[in-house]
Catalase
Amino acid sequence: TPALTDPQPNAKRQDLQADTVNPGGTLTDNMGHAISDDQNSLKAGALGPTLLEDHFLREKLHHFDHERIPERVVHARGSGAHGYFELTRSLAEYTTAQVLTEVGAQTPTFVRFSTVAGFRGSPDTPRDIRGFAVKFYTPQGIWDLVGNNAPVFFIQDAIKFPDLVHSVKPEPHNEIPQASAAHDTFWDFISLTPESLHTIMWAMSDRAIPRSFDTMEGFGVHTFRLINAEGKVTLVKYHWKPVLGLHSLVWDEAQKIAGKDPDYNRRLMWDTIDAGGTLEWQFGVQLFTEEQAAGWDFDFRDPTKIVPEALVPVEIVGRLVLNRNPDNFFSETEQVAFMPSNIVPGMDFTEDPLLQGRNFSYLDTQFSRLGGPNWQELPINRPLTPPQNNQRDGHMRRTINPGRVSYYPNSLDTGSPTPDPQEGFRSHPVMMSGVKVRERPESFSDHVGQARLFWNSLTPIEREHLCRAFQFELANVETRHVRLAMLDQIERVHPVLASQVAIALGEPPRAGQTAKPGGTQDSAEEMALL
Ligand code: HEM
């Protein structure tokens, strides 16, 4: 394996340059033929009909006709930038992954920020979770940390993802609303999915309307495994902490900006980098063992749960700097393809049923979005370590693999690639046994505790914003029984929250309205808000 010091941040830039064509010289068609006139098609006389013979016209129109590719099924609206990741503290005690062990080495990265629900051309500032996807071009292959700006997710099992997304996307009969969760189908699904309560609290908080990309946090969400040279496992949660601190818009600003400058977040990042500035985050890890986690009242495999920092502090071990705009939006930001299954030796997955499903879904979706099995060859997606294997052919294959041998084992080509039992990726031998069932473990069953923990962590003004967000969202729900079902759900989190929202919606006061809101730090102040 090459030393990590080889791929300095410019390594990916140089790699991309191999495919970069700078404009200049004579105008040609795609086959390199010089063109004499690009303004007039070939006609039978100046007034005559256009001739089918005009191969320049046909090629130009043909290419234009096929310029569009399907947008991402979720996270279609996004903005990207290049940069580097620098490790400041070695995690060699926990992992053999070079990207996390070689202090001072700078690994090239490409990062894409996104909203979840809106179309590719939708505004930057709706209330929504933001995607925070980081591609590391490491010497051991690509590592993708495909995270969000919330540390938890709406559902516990991948089998529910298509339902979640169908509910949040515009309603299928009239394609309304374009980029907002404020509609009946979303809240219907959420009210019937109690496991979503914790993430809904994050989504209704100010965190879901970040001021800029570099004032939001990022989270890997799932717990992953790290494995060290002795084969010892440590569990890990990943964090990005913005150096500028956490800042949000207020809802009124977010709505006005959506009208005045739908590219607000994108433009800010572009202009910052264009002016020579950078965007920067600290990289943090929460490290813990399975023995430690066994004592907790939640499951580390459950993606609707955080590991509270009171239990395991976040340790800062690196930084991420974004400092270069893409040269071409389509070739970089649109064609980039992230996959949570892209991990490197020294890392492994956990049994989190959401992560397990994601590991299928991203590979699968690239096939239709990027047109076949060779999307890994696209310049932005290819690793700095050239792939060596016996995969061949397929639509748009561009690699040229010489020789007659495309299989393993073989005795005819001693130079062909072979597995490396020492350095190659090995799944950690976790002891597994069980009865084949479609069931959720008991350890995944508390949907309220951490939702309440989140509410309790907020300041009064943050609570007020959160109440108002629920009021706005549920006021847009036309079906009364859905509004009432949601009130029932949030009443389980906190009676003050439910009462505030119920009163604003003109619904009867909640039973819990007069109840003492146990566990909050400033309940008198809260009740006064009513
Ligand atoms: C994008 C599936 C959960 C973060 C996507 C895409 C799919 C998908 C199909 C489009 C990818 C593309 O076209 O390139 C799923 C499934 C999930 C799930 C099946 C659950 C079972 C999550 C979670 C997170 C997340 C929990 C955060 C930890 C993202 C991000 C993107 C994305 C950031 C955009 C990547 C980019 O910028 O290109 N997801 N997702 N997803 N997903 Fe998920």
Q: What stands out?
A: The beta strands are 78-87, 106-115, 130-138, 141-148, 218-219, 224-227, 233-242, 279-288, 315-324, 347-348. The two ends are 63 Å apart (CA to CA).
